[in-house]
Structures are given as structure tokens and as C-alpha cells.
């Protein structure tokens, strides 16, 4: 499943370059182009789902895989011990700007809670 005008589907298709840090058959992890922390990696399913709820509803097991990949990325980045945040912005009001579900893996600096 892909959408021709979707930025992240185009990254999956290698039509737009990205710094890929980890990949499985069904998921892809690449660095955010505008990092908000020393580690800022986006984890996506290769198929197109608009948000986390749509992913979880449509394909049982793939949301789990995205979370496993996020943790693998955090291990490789060395931020598990210090802690990392996994964020799925859902809807424009929450700051979602790309409507292909993506988890932000953020770490490597102090992460305040609640977020600003
Ligand atoms: P959202 O605001 O939808 O939760 O997150 C979208 C993220 O995608 C933003 O953090 C933004 O910096 C990132 N982004 C937007 N365009 C690109 C791109 O072309 N390549 C990469 N690697 N990241 C992008
Ligand atoms: Zn897409």
C-alpha cells in the first residue's frame, strides 16, 4: 500500500533520500531531517496508514513491530539506559504534519515531562 503524494511512502520507495538507520521487511527507521534531540529517528511501517490508531486497527502485529524497531534503534543509538521518548503525534492539533504514521524516537538529552 502506498500513496504517490505521501512523503514517507516516497522515502520507502527510495524516491527521496533519507539517512536510514535500521530496516526490517515491514518497517523503516531514518533520521529526522530537523532533529529536536541528539537522537531523533522516525520509525514507520512501509505500508501507508494515516496514524497509529489506523495502523493498529488494520494490521495486527505491525504496530508491535514498529515499537520493537523503535527500541532496537534506541539500543543502537545508546539511549536505552538514559531513557528515550517514543511519540506518535496524532492529528494536526497535536502537531502531526505527515499523515503516514511515524514514531519519533527521541533521546540523548534531558527530556522534560510534561513536554513543552
Ligand atoms: P510530525 O510533525 O508529523 O509528528 O513529524 C513529521 C516529522 O518529519 C518532522 O519532525 C519533520 O522534521 C520530519 N520530516 C519532514 N520532512 C522530512 C523529510 O523529507 N525527511 C526526513 N528525514 N524527515 C522529514
Ligand atoms: Zn505514506
Give an account of the 3D structure:
With 116 residues, the chain is an alpha+beta fold. The chain has a single domain (3-107), classed as 2-Layer Sandwich (HIT family, subunit A). 25% of the residues lie in helices and 22% in strands. A five-stranded antiparallel beta sheet has the order 1-2-3-5-4, with helices on one face. The longest helix has 16 residues, at 62-77. It is globular and about 35 Å long. The model has no long low-confidence stretch (mean pLDDT 95). The structure holds guanosine-5'-monophosphate and zinc ion.
Keywords:
binds zinc ion, 22% strand, alpha+beta, single chain, 5 strands, five-stranded antiparallel sheet, HIT family, subunit A
Number of domains: 1
- Overall pLDDT score: 95
Stretches where pLDDT is under 50 for at least 5 consecutive residues are none
Strand content: 15-25%
Instruction: Profile the largest sheet.
Output: 5 strands, antiparallel
What is the ordering of alpha helices and beta strands?
Answer: HEEEHHEE
The secondary structure category is: alpha+beta
CA-based shape: globular
Instruction: Please report the first level of CATH classification, the CATH class.
Output: Alpha Beta
Query: Total number of β-strand segments?
Result: 5
Oligomeric state of this protein: single chain
For the record, the CATH architecture stands as 2-Layer Sandwich
What would the CATH topology be?
HIT family, subunit A
Number of helices: 3
Strand order of the largest sheet: 1-2-3-5-4
